[in-house]
Write a structure and sequence with these properties.
The chain folds into two domains: 1-61, no CATH class; 63-156, Rossmann fold (3-Layer(aba) Sandwich), CATH 3.40.50.620. Helix content is 33%, strand content 17%. It is built from four helices and five strands; from the N terminus they run αβαββαβαβ. β3 (74-78), α3 and β4 (101-107) form a beta-alpha-beta unit.
Amino acid sequence: MHRRGAGKMKKLMSLAEDFKATITVTGMHGRKGVKADPTICGTTVAHLAKNCPNPVVIIKDPRPRSIKTDSKYRFGVCYDGSQSCNRALRTVLSMMRADDKLVIITVKESDIKTEMIESSVNSVCAECNINTQTFELLDRDSRFPAGYNANVYKTI
């Protein structure tokens, strides 16, 4: 971490705490160029995502509704039924409009009951007046490239 970047990180964390932010939204500018792995972000954004006391939304490529042909956003939530996934779902629902699209992504696991996932998600969505959700169930092995040790990860 560069000394100059440390000041920005402290200031961002301080602002989030001072204003009692419920959600922190940040962008990625990519000023240092395209990375080989598009999921890698700069040190300031990575620090904020890891250490912020509230949920962080990182917007990589903002596209306003006005330039979309249907004026709708599509949100994806990785969901396994845990409390942290419930918080993530509720955070996303609070940002959605009623006609936006929501895809719930769940990985098949022996301890995950897909019927309970759908029932739980549908209930939360109904509370928030969202009924555009769809569900994607992924095979466990489809998440990772061949030879990757998928057993290290419990959820997406």
